Amino acid sequence: MPRFDVTIAGELNLDLILYGLPEQLPPERELLASGVMLTLGSSSAIVAHNLAALGSRVGFQSRIGDDPLGQIALDRLKQGNVDVSLVRRVAGASTTGLTVILHHEAWRNILTYSGTIAELTWDDLDLDYLADSRHFHFSSYYLQRGLRPRVSELFQKMKARGLTISLDTNDDPDDRWEGDLHELLGHVDVFLPNEREARKAAGTDDLEAAIRKLSGLVPLVVVKLGRKGALAQRGAARVVSPSREVVVVDTVGAGDSFDAGFLHEYVRGSDLATCLASGNRAGALSTTRPGGTEAFREAAHRQEFFRQRGI
Ligand SMILES: Nc1ncnc2c1ncn2[C@@H]1O[C@H](COP(=O)(O)OP(=O)(O)OP(=O)(O)O)[C@@H](O)[C@H]1O
Ligand SMILES: [Mg+2]
After folding, report:
1. Cα 50 to chain centroid, rounded
2. Is the CB of 244 under 6 A from ligand 1?
3. 168 phi and psi, to 5 degrees?
4. pTM, whole model, 2 decimals?
5. Which of 25, 62, 103, 230 is the most exposed place for a label (fewest CB within 10 A)?
6. Nearest ligand to residue 293 Cα
7. Which residue among 168, 194, 296 has the greatest number of ligand 1 atoms within 8 angstroms of its CB, and so is best to mutate?
8. pLDDT at 92
9. How remote is the CA of residue 30 from the centroid of ligand 2, in Å?
10. Residue 220 pLDDT > 80, yes or no?
């Protein structure tokens, strides 16, 4: 039996979220926020944290700087029962990355300093550690610039060791969605884009055409549809699952939490409807507290949320 259910190689950093800012942000003015939250950020780390909170055994590799923000992020994962024994702390010119989120009523600004996010490379990875798992997950393909040229090779190595593989690219900050993604998708078992990312990755504005194209490349395409829930396409078969009713604090990390909920069931061999329902309830839970992991940190809050909804 492998040591882990899921291993992840990826970014580890904090999110600084400001709430209650004015809708307009004129330059050179002092603008007041009504609330602030410093919390675990980064797609890879949120997926790892929330998978462990749901009860999966998770191993996580990353590179952080030798600085207090990196330490806080690392401590959060450790407290969440994620194995971080091989996370590398590297003192150098770059410090640990940071994302600042300006939260408005209907939209948000997401500002990222990449720092060590872009500097994780092949040489930081221990392939035996990552392969000692049932499943390998990869997030934020376009932010992980140091690793990106060898992600295809990494997937092939994990596949050769018998792991299944999932990918959530998240957004491409350059909005180029280059063709190497299609080659990469050839090694992926589960692709987890949101609606916009599915269209961008397929190179079409039509969601149905995008799903058709992507499902020709990947055995299982799972599209996150925000408050509409999610759908899964496996060959010709389609399973649709509605979202959970919820009072939203913010949707930061909802997609990553969905990934955690979905994968938690997927690695146990559950059917698609169960995987999607688990993804939707994890996504909904994540919106009940600030950031991507606050709602998962406290077992009592998590259990009460699931109990009230009869899950
Ligand atoms: N308003 C909402 N109400 C209920 N559930 C929601 C809501 N917004 C998101 N979710 C849940 O979270 C999941 C992921 O949301 P979304 O489609 O926004 O992902 P995403 O764009 O990848 O998010 P992220 O910004 O974290 O990358 C949805 O599929 C749904 O299950
Ligand atoms: Mg996402």
Report:
1. 10
2. yes
3. -125, 105
4. 0.97
5. 25
6. 1
7. 194
8. 85
9. 31
10. yes
Query: Is residue 145's pLDDT more than 90?
Result: yes
280 Cβ inside 6 Å of ligand 1: yes
DSSP one-letter code for 194 = B
Q: Is the CB of 72 under 6 A from ligand 1?
A: no
How would residue 247 be classed by pLDDT, with cut points 50, 70 and 90? very high
Distance 110 CA to ligand 2 centre (A): 13
Question: Which residue, among 286, 253, 291, 288, has the nearest Cα to 54 in the 3D structure?
Answer: 286
> Is any atom of ligand 1 closer than 6 Å to the C-beta of 4?
no
CA 206/CA 192 separation, integer angstroms:
17
Please tell me the distance between residue 139's alpha carbon and the centre of ligand 2 in angstroms: 9
Residue 49: pLDDT band (50, 70, 90) is very high
CA-based nearest residue to 140, from 172, 100, 104: 172
pLDDT tens profile 195-207: 999 999 999 999 9
**Residue among 224, 228, 241, 257 whose CB has most ligand 1 atoms within 8 A, to mutate:** 224
Residue type, 139: S
Handedness of CA 152, 158, 164, 166 (dihedral sign): negative
Of 52, 10, 53, 251, residue with least CA distance to 139: 10
In angstroms, how far is CA 96 from the centroid of its own chain? 18
Say what the alpha-carbon torsion angle 283, 289, 292, 298 is, to the nearest 10 degrees.
Answer: -100
pLDDT over threshold 90, residue 310 = no
Compare 107 and 227 and report the one with higher pLDDT: 227
Point out the ligand 1 atom lying closest to the alpha carbon of residue 256: 26
Phi-psi region of 144 (alpha: psi -120 to 50; beta: other; left: phi over 0): beta
226 lines ligand 1 (CB under 6 A): yes
